[in-house]
From TrEMBL:
Keywords: Aminotransferase, Pyridoxal phosphate, Transferase. The keyword Nuclease does not apply. PANTHER family: AMINOTRANSFERASE (PTHR43094), AMINOTRANSFERASE CLASS-III (PTHR43094:SF1). InterPro entries: Aminotrans_3, Aminotrans_3_PPA_site, PyrdxlP-dep_Trfase, PyrdxlP-dep_Trfase_major, PyrdxlP-dep_Trfase_small. GO terms for molecular function: transaminase activity. The lineage of its organism: Bacteria, Bacillati, Actinomycetota, Actinomycetes, Micrococcales. Signal peptide: none annotated. This is Aminotransferase class III-fold pyridoxal phosphate-dependent enzyme. It holds the Pfam family Aminotran_3. It comes from Demequina zhanjiangensis. Belongs to the class-III pyridoxal-phosphate-dependent aminotransferase family.
Length: 436
Protein backbone atom coordinates (compact mmCIF):
# COMPACT_ATOMS: atom_id res chain seq x y z
CA UNK A 1 0.00 0.00 0.00
CA UNK A 2 1.56 3.28 -1.05
CA UNK A 3 1.07 6.62 0.69
CA UNK A 4 0.00 9.92 -0.91
CA UNK A 5 3.44 11.49 -0.30
CA UNK A 6 5.90 9.63 -2.50
CA UNK A 7 9.29 8.88 -0.92
CA UNK A 8 12.36 7.51 -2.71
CA UNK A 9 11.73 4.23 -0.92
CA UNK A 10 7.98 3.84 -1.27
CA UNK A 11 7.57 1.92 2.00
CA UNK A 12 9.74 4.35 4.01
CA UNK A 13 8.24 6.12 7.02
CA UNK A 14 10.86 8.61 8.19
CA UNK A 15 10.26 10.59 11.40
CA UNK A 16 8.32 13.84 11.08
CA UNK A 17 10.54 16.87 11.65
CA UNK A 18 8.83 19.64 13.64
CA UNK A 19 11.59 22.04 14.70
CA UNK A 20 15.21 22.96 13.99
CA UNK A 21 17.73 25.31 15.54
CA UNK A 22 21.46 25.63 14.96
CA UNK A 23 22.81 22.14 14.29
CA UNK A 24 19.83 20.38 15.88
CA UNK A 25 16.51 19.01 14.62
CA UNK A 26 13.56 17.58 16.58
CA UNK A 27 10.94 15.09 15.44
CA UNK A 28 7.27 14.83 16.43
CA UNK A 29 8.15 12.32 19.16
CA UNK A 30 10.52 14.77 20.85
CA UNK A 31 13.73 13.05 19.70
CA UNK A 32 16.69 15.35 19.00
CA UNK A 33 19.17 14.83 16.15
CA UNK A 34 22.51 16.47 15.42
CA UNK A 35 22.61 17.46 11.76
CA UNK A 36 25.99 15.94 10.94
CA UNK A 37 25.63 16.45 7.20
CA UNK A 38 23.75 19.76 6.88
CA UNK A 39 20.83 17.86 5.39
CA UNK A 40 22.19 17.18 1.90
CA UNK A 41 25.24 19.40 2.54
CA UNK A 42 22.95 22.43 2.45
CA UNK A 43 22.70 24.16 5.83
CA UNK A 44 25.89 26.22 5.89
CA UNK A 45 24.78 28.64 8.61
CA UNK A 46 22.64 26.26 10.65
CA UNK A 47 18.89 26.18 11.12
CA UNK A 48 16.47 28.96 12.14
CA UNK A 49 19.00 31.80 12.14
CA UNK A 50 17.01 34.82 13.41
CA UNK A 51 18.41 37.24 10.81
CA UNK A 52 17.30 35.03 7.93
CA UNK A 53 13.93 34.27 9.52
CA UNK A 54 13.27 38.01 9.94
CA UNK A 55 14.31 38.71 6.34
CA UNK A 56 11.92 36.05 5.03
CA UNK A 57 9.03 37.44 7.07
CA UNK A 58 9.74 41.02 6.04
CA UNK A 59 9.95 40.18 2.34
CA UNK A 60 6.85 37.98 2.48
CA UNK A 61 4.91 40.96 3.83
CA UNK A 62 5.96 43.09 0.82
CA UNK A 63 6.06 40.95 -2.33
CA UNK A 64 6.91 37.29 -2.83
CA UNK A 65 6.79 36.88 -6.60
CA UNK A 66 7.09 38.88 -9.78
CA UNK A 67 8.26 37.43 -13.06
CA UNK A 68 11.81 38.39 -14.06
CA UNK A 69 10.60 39.26 -17.54
CA UNK A 70 8.55 42.14 -16.14
CA UNK A 71 10.42 43.25 -13.01
CA UNK A 72 13.72 43.14 -11.26
CA UNK A 73 13.98 43.41 -7.48
CA UNK A 74 16.53 44.93 -5.11
CA UNK A 75 17.36 41.66 -3.34
CA UNK A 76 18.14 39.83 -6.59
CA UNK A 77 20.31 42.70 -7.80
CA UNK A 78 22.22 42.73 -4.52
CA UNK A 79 22.67 38.95 -4.40
CA UNK A 80 24.14 38.98 -7.91
CA UNK A 81 26.43 41.90 -7.05
CA UNK A 82 27.71 40.20 -3.90
CA UNK A 83 28.29 36.87 -5.64
CA UNK A 84 30.27 38.59 -8.37
CA UNK A 85 32.29 40.54 -5.82
CA UNK A 86 33.03 37.38 -3.83
CA UNK A 87 34.03 35.26 -6.82
CA UNK A 88 35.27 37.64 -9.52
CA UNK A 89 32.67 36.55 -12.08
CA UNK A 90 30.97 39.06 -14.36
CA UNK A 91 27.39 37.92 -13.88
CA UNK A 92 25.10 35.68 -11.85
CA UNK A 93 22.05 33.93 -13.31
CA UNK A 94 19.66 33.05 -10.47
CA UNK A 95 17.73 29.79 -10.57
CA UNK A 96 15.87 27.53 -8.14
CA UNK A 97 18.11 24.49 -7.63
CA UNK A 98 21.55 23.04 -8.23
CA UNK A 99 20.24 20.90 -11.06
CA UNK A 100 18.86 24.01 -12.75
CA UNK A 101 22.19 25.78 -12.24
CA UNK A 102 24.01 22.94 -14.01
CA UNK A 103 21.45 22.90 -16.84
CA UNK A 104 21.86 26.67 -17.22
CA UNK A 105 25.66 26.31 -17.25
CA UNK A 106 25.41 23.83 -20.11
CA UNK A 107 23.03 26.11 -21.99
CA UNK A 108 25.34 29.11 -21.53
CA UNK A 109 28.20 27.03 -22.93
CA UNK A 110 26.17 26.01 -25.98
CA UNK A 111 25.02 29.56 -26.60
CA UNK A 112 28.58 30.90 -26.22
CA UNK A 113 29.73 28.72 -29.10
CA UNK A 114 26.62 29.46 -31.18
CA UNK A 115 27.18 33.21 -30.80
CA UNK A 116 30.74 32.70 -32.06
CA UNK A 117 29.62 30.73 -35.11
CA UNK A 118 30.70 27.35 -33.74
CA UNK A 119 27.33 25.65 -33.50
CA UNK A 120 28.96 22.27 -34.09
CA UNK A 121 30.32 22.40 -30.53
CA UNK A 122 27.59 20.42 -28.76
CA UNK A 123 29.56 17.74 -26.91
CA UNK A 124 30.07 17.80 -23.14
CA UNK A 125 32.46 15.70 -21.10
CA UNK A 126 32.27 14.92 -17.40
CA UNK A 127 33.78 12.50 -14.91
CA UNK A 128 32.68 8.88 -15.04
CA UNK A 129 31.84 8.93 -11.32
CA UNK A 130 30.48 12.46 -10.88
CA UNK A 131 27.01 13.70 -10.03
CA UNK A 132 25.49 16.92 -11.35
CA UNK A 133 21.76 16.79 -10.65
CA UNK A 134 18.48 15.07 -11.40
CA UNK A 135 17.27 16.91 -14.51
CA UNK A 136 17.88 15.28 -17.88
CA UNK A 137 20.97 17.21 -18.93
CA UNK A 138 22.53 17.19 -15.47
CA UNK A 139 21.76 13.50 -14.96
CA UNK A 140 23.15 12.71 -18.41
CA UNK A 141 26.41 14.28 -17.24
CA UNK A 142 26.42 12.13 -14.12
CA UNK A 143 28.01 8.75 -13.61
CA UNK A 144 25.44 7.83 -11.00
CA UNK A 145 23.04 4.98 -10.35
CA UNK A 146 20.15 7.37 -10.96
CA UNK A 147 20.99 7.33 -14.69
CA UNK A 148 18.96 4.13 -14.83
CA UNK A 149 15.84 6.29 -14.50
CA UNK A 150 16.55 7.87 -17.89
CA UNK A 151 18.07 4.84 -19.58
CA UNK A 152 17.69 5.07 -23.31
CA UNK A 153 17.30 8.84 -23.51
CA UNK A 154 20.28 10.09 -21.46
CA UNK A 155 23.13 11.62 -23.44
CA UNK A 156 26.37 9.65 -23.34
CA UNK A 157 28.52 12.21 -21.53
CA UNK A 158 30.63 10.77 -18.66
CA UNK A 159 34.01 9.78 -20.07
CA UNK A 160 36.75 11.46 -18.02
CA UNK A 161 38.70 9.90 -15.14
CA UNK A 162 37.64 10.62 -11.56
CA UNK A 163 39.88 11.24 -8.59
CA UNK A 164 39.51 8.18 -6.33
CA UNK A 165 42.80 7.85 -4.49
CA UNK A 166 41.74 4.95 -2.25
CA UNK A 167 41.31 2.70 -5.29
CA UNK A 168 43.47 4.28 -7.99
CA UNK A 169 46.47 6.07 -6.46
CA UNK A 170 48.54 2.94 -5.87
CA UNK A 171 52.24 3.50 -5.25
CA UNK A 172 52.45 6.47 -7.63
CA UNK A 173 53.42 9.93 -6.46
CA UNK A 174 50.72 12.61 -6.46
CA UNK A 175 52.30 14.13 -9.56
CA UNK A 176 52.36 10.78 -11.36
CA UNK A 177 48.73 10.12 -10.43
CA UNK A 178 47.63 13.53 -11.72
CA UNK A 179 49.63 13.10 -14.92
CA UNK A 180 48.08 9.70 -15.61
CA UNK A 181 44.61 11.21 -15.27
CA UNK A 182 45.57 14.11 -17.53
CA UNK A 183 46.97 11.77 -20.17
CA UNK A 184 43.67 9.89 -20.24
CA UNK A 185 41.67 13.14 -20.32
CA UNK A 186 43.81 14.50 -23.17
CA UNK A 187 43.02 11.45 -25.29
CA UNK A 188 39.28 11.70 -24.61
CA UNK A 189 39.22 15.43 -25.40
CA UNK A 190 41.29 15.00 -28.57
CA UNK A 191 38.81 12.42 -29.85
CA UNK A 192 36.12 15.12 -29.92
CA UNK A 193 38.14 17.32 -32.28
CA UNK A 194 36.17 20.56 -32.78
CA UNK A 195 32.87 19.31 -31.32
CA UNK A 196 33.62 19.86 -27.63
CA UNK A 197 31.52 22.57 -25.96
CA UNK A 198 32.67 22.17 -22.36
CA UNK A 199 34.03 19.96 -19.63
CA UNK A 200 31.88 19.78 -16.47
CA UNK A 201 33.63 18.70 -13.26
CA UNK A 202 33.03 18.70 -9.49
CA UNK A 203 36.17 20.11 -7.79
CA UNK A 204 35.34 17.92 -4.78
CA UNK A 205 33.17 14.84 -5.18
CA UNK A 206 29.74 14.61 -3.62
CA UNK A 207 26.97 12.06 -3.97
CA UNK A 208 28.92 9.47 -5.96
CA UNK A 209 32.36 9.28 -4.34
CA UNK A 210 31.65 11.03 -1.03
CA UNK A 211 34.05 14.00 -0.67
CA UNK A 212 36.68 12.56 -3.01
CA UNK A 213 39.39 14.97 -4.18
CA UNK A 214 41.38 15.08 -7.40
CA UNK A 215 45.18 14.79 -7.21
CA UNK A 216 46.90 18.17 -6.99
CA UNK A 217 47.37 19.68 -10.43
CA UNK A 218 44.67 17.71 -12.20
CA UNK A 219 42.02 20.44 -12.30
CA UNK A 220 44.53 23.07 -13.43
CA UNK A 221 45.80 20.73 -16.12
CA UNK A 222 42.26 19.88 -17.23
CA UNK A 223 41.45 23.59 -17.51
CA UNK A 224 44.46 24.07 -19.77
CA UNK A 225 43.35 21.13 -21.95
CA UNK A 226 39.99 22.85 -22.36
CA UNK A 227 41.66 26.09 -23.40
CA UNK A 228 43.80 24.26 -25.98
CA UNK A 229 40.69 22.57 -27.40
CA UNK A 230 38.68 25.81 -27.56
CA UNK A 231 36.19 24.44 -25.03
CA UNK A 232 34.86 25.94 -21.80
CA UNK A 233 35.56 24.67 -18.31
CA UNK A 234 32.49 24.42 -16.03
CA UNK A 235 32.92 23.82 -12.30
CA UNK A 236 29.99 22.22 -10.48
CA UNK A 237 30.28 23.87 -7.07
CA UNK A 238 26.67 23.27 -6.08
CA UNK A 239 27.86 21.22 -3.13
CA UNK A 240 31.42 22.50 -2.59
CA UNK A 241 30.75 26.23 -2.92
CA UNK A 242 29.75 28.97 -0.45
CA UNK A 243 32.61 28.22 1.94
CA UNK A 244 31.93 24.53 2.43
CA UNK A 245 35.53 23.59 1.60
CA UNK A 246 37.13 26.61 3.33
CA UNK A 247 36.95 29.19 0.54
CA UNK A 248 33.99 30.69 -1.29
CA UNK A 249 34.69 28.32 -4.20
CA UNK A 250 36.76 25.14 -3.95
CA UNK A 251 38.42 26.02 -7.27
CA UNK A 252 40.23 28.86 -5.53
CA UNK A 253 42.37 26.33 -3.70
CA UNK A 254 43.53 24.87 -7.03
CA UNK A 255 44.21 28.29 -8.63
CA UNK A 256 41.65 27.35 -11.27
CA UNK A 257 39.50 29.96 -13.01
CA UNK A 258 36.43 28.30 -14.57
CA UNK A 259 34.48 29.93 -17.38
CA UNK A 260 31.18 29.06 -15.69
CA UNK A 261 30.30 27.87 -12.18
CA UNK A 262 27.11 26.20 -10.96
CA UNK A 263 26.43 26.84 -7.28
CA UNK A 264 23.55 26.27 -4.89
CA UNK A 265 22.89 24.45 -1.59
CA UNK A 266 24.77 26.80 0.77
CA UNK A 267 23.51 29.89 -1.08
CA UNK A 268 20.01 29.36 0.32
CA UNK A 269 21.37 27.30 3.23
CA UNK A 270 18.08 25.39 3.39
CA UNK A 271 15.91 28.46 3.95
CA UNK A 272 14.71 28.67 0.33
CA UNK A 273 15.31 26.85 -2.96
CA UNK A 274 17.83 29.12 -4.69
CA UNK A 275 20.95 28.58 -6.76
CA UNK A 276 23.04 30.47 -9.28
CA UNK A 277 25.10 30.06 -12.41
CA UNK A 278 28.15 32.33 -12.39
CA UNK A 279 29.25 33.44 -15.86
CA UNK A 280 32.62 34.86 -16.91
CA UNK A 281 33.07 38.09 -18.84
CA UNK A 282 34.27 36.09 -21.86
CA UNK A 283 30.98 34.24 -22.11
CA UNK A 284 28.82 37.29 -21.43
CA UNK A 285 30.72 39.36 -23.99
CA UNK A 286 30.11 36.75 -26.69
CA UNK A 287 26.37 36.91 -25.99
CA UNK A 288 26.31 40.71 -25.68
CA UNK A 289 28.11 41.16 -29.00
CA UNK A 290 25.84 38.56 -30.63
CA UNK A 291 22.11 38.28 -30.06
CA UNK A 292 22.19 40.06 -26.70
CA UNK A 293 19.57 37.63 -25.40
CA UNK A 294 20.07 34.72 -22.98
CA UNK A 295 18.21 31.72 -24.37
CA UNK A 296 16.91 30.33 -21.09
CA UNK A 297 14.67 31.08 -18.15
CA UNK A 298 12.85 29.67 -15.16
CA UNK A 299 9.47 30.68 -13.74
CA UNK A 300 10.62 31.25 -10.15
CA UNK A 301 14.18 32.36 -10.87
CA UNK A 302 15.26 35.43 -8.91
CA UNK A 303 11.87 35.91 -7.28
CA UNK A 304 11.87 38.48 -4.44
CA UNK A 305 11.32 35.98 -1.62
CA UNK A 306 14.11 33.56 -2.45
CA UNK A 307 16.44 36.41 -3.41
CA UNK A 308 15.85 38.15 -0.07
CA UNK A 309 16.53 34.83 1.65
CA UNK A 310 19.81 34.32 -0.21
CA UNK A 311 20.81 37.91 0.55
CA UNK A 312 20.22 37.35 4.27
CA UNK A 313 22.34 34.18 4.13
CA UNK A 314 25.16 36.11 2.43
CA UNK A 315 24.89 38.79 5.11
CA UNK A 316 25.23 36.18 7.87
CA UNK A 317 28.21 34.60 6.12
CA UNK A 318 29.96 37.97 5.98
CA UNK A 319 28.96 39.53 9.31
CA UNK A 320 29.60 36.41 11.40
CA UNK A 321 32.79 35.29 9.61
CA UNK A 322 31.12 31.95 8.97
CA UNK A 323 33.58 30.71 6.35
CA UNK A 324 36.57 31.38 8.59
CA UNK A 325 34.78 29.77 11.55
CA UNK A 326 33.98 26.80 9.35
CA UNK A 327 37.64 26.40 8.38
CA UNK A 328 38.64 26.28 12.03
CA UNK A 329 35.83 23.90 12.98
CA UNK A 330 36.68 21.65 10.03
CA UNK A 331 40.19 21.10 11.39
CA UNK A 332 38.69 19.89 14.68
CA UNK A 333 36.21 17.62 12.91
CA UNK A 334 38.86 16.09 10.65
CA UNK A 335 41.27 15.50 13.54
CA UNK A 336 38.48 13.76 15.45
CA UNK A 337 37.52 11.61 12.46
CA UNK A 338 41.12 10.55 11.92
CA UNK A 339 41.37 9.63 15.61
CA UNK A 340 38.26 7.47 15.23
CA UNK A 341 39.80 5.84 12.16
CA UNK A 342 42.84 4.83 14.18
CA UNK A 343 40.52 3.28 16.78
CA UNK A 344 38.01 1.62 14.45
CA UNK A 345 39.31 -0.63 11.64
CA UNK A 346 35.90 -0.42 9.95
CA UNK A 347 36.99 3.03 8.68
CA UNK A 348 39.17 2.59 5.59
CA UNK A 349 39.71 6.26 4.83
CA UNK A 350 38.97 9.79 6.03
CA UNK A 351 38.90 12.19 3.09
CA UNK A 352 37.61 15.51 1.86
CA UNK A 353 38.37 19.18 2.08
CA UNK A 354 37.28 21.76 4.64
CA UNK A 355 33.90 20.86 6.12
CA UNK A 356 33.13 18.49 3.26
CA UNK A 357 34.43 15.23 4.72
CA UNK A 358 33.61 11.56 4.43
CA UNK A 359 34.35 8.19 5.97
CA UNK A 360 34.79 5.20 3.69
CA UNK A 361 33.72 2.02 5.48
CA UNK A 362 34.82 -1.56 5.03
CA UNK A 363 31.83 -3.20 3.33
CA UNK A 364 33.18 -6.69 4.12
CA UNK A 365 31.96 -8.14 0.86
CA UNK A 366 28.40 -6.88 1.14
CA UNK A 367 26.48 -5.37 -1.79
CA UNK A 368 27.56 -1.80 -2.51
CA UNK A 369 25.60 0.65 -0.40
CA UNK A 370 24.29 -1.82 2.18
CA UNK A 371 27.00 -1.03 4.73
CA UNK A 372 26.56 2.73 4.67
CA UNK A 373 22.77 2.52 4.74
CA UNK A 374 23.02 0.27 7.81
CA UNK A 375 25.52 2.62 9.42
CA UNK A 376 23.45 5.74 8.70
CA UNK A 377 20.45 4.00 10.27
CA UNK A 378 22.48 3.15 13.39
CA UNK A 379 23.71 6.76 13.59
CA UNK A 380 20.11 7.96 13.41
CA UNK A 381 19.28 5.78 16.43
CA UNK A 382 22.12 7.51 18.27
CA UNK A 383 20.76 10.96 17.32
CA UNK A 384 23.19 11.71 14.48
CA UNK A 385 22.26 12.34 10.84
CA UNK A 386 24.84 11.47 8.17
CA UNK A 387 24.58 11.46 4.37
CA UNK A 388 25.34 8.13 2.65
CA UNK A 389 26.95 8.28 -0.79
CA UNK A 390 24.40 7.06 -3.33
CA UNK A 391 26.16 6.82 -6.66
CA UNK A 392 26.77 3.10 -6.78
CA UNK A 393 30.57 3.22 -6.46
CA UNK A 394 31.65 3.53 -2.82
CA UNK A 395 30.62 2.78 0.76
CA UNK A 396 31.07 6.23 2.24
CA UNK A 397 29.12 8.53 4.52
CA UNK A 398 29.50 12.29 4.28
CA UNK A 399 30.21 14.13 7.53
CA UNK A 400 29.51 17.78 6.81
CA UNK A 401 27.80 19.67 9.64
CA UNK A 402 26.90 23.37 9.43
CA UNK A 403 29.94 25.64 9.33
CA UNK A 404 28.66 27.23 12.55
CA UNK A 405 29.05 24.07 14.66
CA UNK A 406 30.72 24.70 18.03
CA UNK A 407 33.51 22.74 19.69
CA UNK A 408 31.03 21.35 22.23
CA UNK A 409 28.75 20.17 19.41
CA UNK A 410 31.72 18.64 17.58
CA UNK A 411 32.48 16.61 20.70
CA UNK A 412 28.85 15.46 20.77
CA UNK A 413 29.00 14.51 17.08
CA UNK A 414 32.16 12.48 17.64
CA UNK A 415 30.70 10.72 20.69
CA UNK A 416 27.60 9.70 18.72
CA UNK A 417 29.71 8.60 15.79
CA UNK A 418 31.93 6.50 18.03
CA UNK A 419 28.94 4.83 19.66
CA UNK A 420 27.47 4.03 16.24
CA UNK A 421 30.77 2.52 15.06
CA UNK A 422 30.90 0.29 18.17
CA UNK A 423 27.33 -0.87 17.49
CA UNK A 424 28.11 -1.55 13.83
CA UNK A 425 31.19 -3.57 14.76
CA UNK A 426 29.18 -5.52 17.32
CA UNK A 427 26.45 -6.27 14.80
CA UNK A 428 29.02 -7.66 12.39
CA UNK A 429 30.52 -9.91 15.08
CA UNK A 430 27.16 -11.48 15.92
CA UNK A 431 26.71 -14.94 14.36
CA UNK A 432 24.42 -14.77 11.33
CA UNK A 433 21.57 -17.31 10.94
CA UNK A 434 22.33 -20.12 8.55
CA UNK A 435 20.53 -19.90 5.22
CA UNK A 436 17.36 -21.99 5.04
Amino acid sequence: MTRPLIQNVLAAQPPEVVRAEGVWLWDAEGNRYLDGCSGAVVSAIGHSHPHVVRAIAAQAARVTYAHRGAFTNAAAEEVAARLCELTGFAGAWLVGSGSEAVEAAMQFALQYHQERGESERTVFLSARKGYHGNTLGALSASGHARRAAVSGIALEIPALPTGDALRDHGDRTEEEYAQAMLDEARAVIAAQEDRLAAVLIEPVGGATLGASTHPAGYLAGLTELCREAGALFIADEVLSGMGRTGTVLACEQESVAPDIVAMGKGLGSGYAPVAATLVSQKVLTAIAEGTGVVLGGHTYAGNPLTAATALAVLEVLAEENVIERGREAAVMVRDALEALAREHPLILEVRGRGMLLALELDAEGRAQGDAVREFASICMKHGLILYPATGGFVDAVIVSPPLTITSVEIAQLVQMLGSALIELAGAREEPQPAPA
